[in-house]
Write a structure and sequence with these properties.
Length: 392
């Protein structure tokens, strides 16, 4: 049994970046990271553009101008302005090359075909120059940039339809247990509804990992061995829940050993989640999480999350930790460090009732985990505690 710190270090050191490239349509690339720099194929804006609604002017010495026309966004005609002439113009519309400033409409008085502006302008006023955002062939976004909704919109505005991104890991979720049935079936005596795979699938989706398959295996050694052999050979990451303890019908550990999965560690001095296994088979990471739901999800956030970030070659590989003031009292029994389900809010944190590793209801209300180290036995109201912020 190893410490939490040692387990985290081993996950970081063992999990290697995939560094594989894949091409994605821009509109489906959200959450991915650029594999290489993206050059702009055009100037943006591609023409001189009005920054606001108003009047485009060919400047002269007077404050009065003759109005000769109008230019809307999307217009393809280009009026020719002589000195002292103006056109009505709207935000985003192309500014005629013979205009050299735009006066906002709030500072203009109009009478028939003549306008008077409040003050003299300098050339270029309220005109977005060609290539103001980015020039043709310049780098629009650098390698490793995360494609957020804003980044997707920016690339689409440049006319880019496909991008080269880092391939995300292919992931398999495997749940074990004869007692598990699917929601919607009749709940007969001795059975429970399977939730771990749906819970972990949702956690993966929330982190933008979508290449995930789910598998269920009965408490049978040969079936467990066959299923694990296939998913380990076909995926970059395998997450197993249940069957990793030492009961008569816990076959996961035995199967992993026969498949020659290298054990990096097994069992961590913590609560919940002590019977956690992490191993490696060729380039595939293998996690066997406890079957109790709260323990499984805790181990996912503390350890599997790190492996996912490392596989994506990201430096920020742990969930953020902050110091928060406790709103609760809590007494710890035993000497294992503990992760406590909690609600964090603006510098304070409430430790919830129901900390059992099987208690999903409490986790459902949580947005944080309070970390209670080995040497600490009590938390009192107003104590400062280390708090892990969960992605919600």
């Amino acid at each position: 049994m190893i410490s939490i710190d040692d387990a985290i270090k081993l996950v970081k050191n063992t999990s290697k970046p995939l560094l594989k490239e894949t091409i994605k349509p821009v509109q489906k690339a959200g959450g991915y990271f650029l594999f290489k720099d993206v050059e702009s194929p055009i100037n943006m804006p591609p023409f001189r553009q009005s920054a606001m609604d108003g009047y485009a002017l060919n400047l002269h010495d007077s404050l009065t101008y003759n109005l000769i026309g109008e230019v809307k966004a999307g217009d393809e005609h280009e009026p020719i302005l002589k000195k002292g002439e103006a056109v009505r113009i709207f935000t985003g519309a192309p500014v005629p090359n013979t205009a050299n400033a735009v006066m906002m409409q709030e500072k203009v008085k109009k009478e028939d075909d003549e306008i008077t502006i409040e003050e003299h302008l300098t050339e270029g006023y309220n005109i977005r120059p060609i290539g103001e955002q980015v020039k043709k062939n310049d780098i629009a976004l650098k390698k490793h940039t995360k494609l957020t909704p804003a980044a997707i919109g920016y690339l689409m505005s440049l006319g880019i339809t496909k991008v080269s991104v880092f391939k995300k890991p292919e992931i398999a979720l495997v749940t074990t247990g004869n007692e598990l049935i699917e929601s919607g079936q009749d709940l007969t005596y001795g059975k429970i509804y399977e939730s771990n795979s749906k819970m972990l699938l949702s956690a993966l989706y929330s982190l933008k990992f979508y290449d995930v398959t789910s598998h269920k295996v009965e408490d049978d050694y040969n079936k467990t061995l066959s299923k694990l052999k296939s998913v380990i050979s076909e995926n970059d990451l395998v997450i197993i829940t249940g069957g990793i303890s030492v009961g008569d019908y816990d076959f996961v550990g035995k199967a992993l050993n026969e498949l020659q999965v290298e054990e990096v560690f097994y069992k961590v001095k913590q609560k919940p989640g002590k019977p956690l296994f992490f191993g490696k088979k060729d380039s595939t990471n293998v996690f066997a999480l406890p079957g109790n739901p709260a323990a499984a999800l805790t181990c996912f956030y503390v350890y599997v999350f790190i492996a996912l970030q490392k596989m994506m070659d990201l430096n920020n590989d742990e969930l953020p930790r902050v110091q928060a003031k406790s709103l609760s009292n809590f007494k710890k029994y035993g000497d294992r460090p503990q992760f406590l389900k909690a609600i964090y809010n603006n510098g304070t944190v409430e430790i919830l009732e129901g900390q059992s590793s099987a208690m999903q209801q409490t986790f459902a209300l949580s947005n944080a985990l309070v970390y209670m180290p080995e040497e600490q036995t009590n938390i009192k109201v107003k104590d400062t505690v280390e708090t892990i912020l969960l992605p919600v």
